[in-house]
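The freezer alarm interrupted the setup, so I double-checked each line after restarting. Inputs confirmed:
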Amino acid sequence: MKNRLEELRKQQGIRQEDLAQALGVSRQTVISLEKGKYNPSLSLAFKLARYFCMPIEEIFDDSDEREA
Amino acid sequence: MKNTSKLNNPRYLKGLLIVGLVLMAAGAAAGYLLPLDAHLATTIAGMASGVGSSFALIGGVFLFRRWRLGEVRARDAELAMTDERGLAVAYKAQNVAAVAAVFAMIAIMLAALVRGDEFYALMGSVLLIAVALIKLAAWHIYNRKM
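Predicted 3D structure, all chains:
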């Protein structure tokens, strides 16, 4: 699943370490999320949405999965 | 899921290291000082020494790793093993290990069959059937729970 995490994080000038700390996950998890290698749980997706103050569907794009 | 591992806490690690070193030294000293015919005492001393060296090794390795990485990176490395991605990775690794164990069991059973060792062939078959039954039971339990 694609996402805009890296773009949003950079827009707001946040470091990966700080985002990881705010979400209660490791920096490695943030890196994997940004690269699209790991899909977050529903609760982590909600945490991200709350952190960036936007709906989940504006952060994550599941169009490739819908097509499949 | 909350991480409850005591291996993240340097206080427990130091305690484990000290207990391990004391047990190891006491076991080694007892083994050296005890008369040769004190079989039971020597066995207990050997066990204490073995358990102590394991404790000391675990405590030492984790403390060394913590010292080498630094406090911040060590905390992140621990979090990487226990956050949701870490648990997902561990779950997958566990599945691979379980599959590898089953294949090893099949290999042992086949080797025992070829060698004509009926006891080990039977043990292998019983273990494989037990694994299959446990998996089936676990599947039913989790299927109801989730």
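Quick read of the result. The radius of gyration of chain B is 22 Å.
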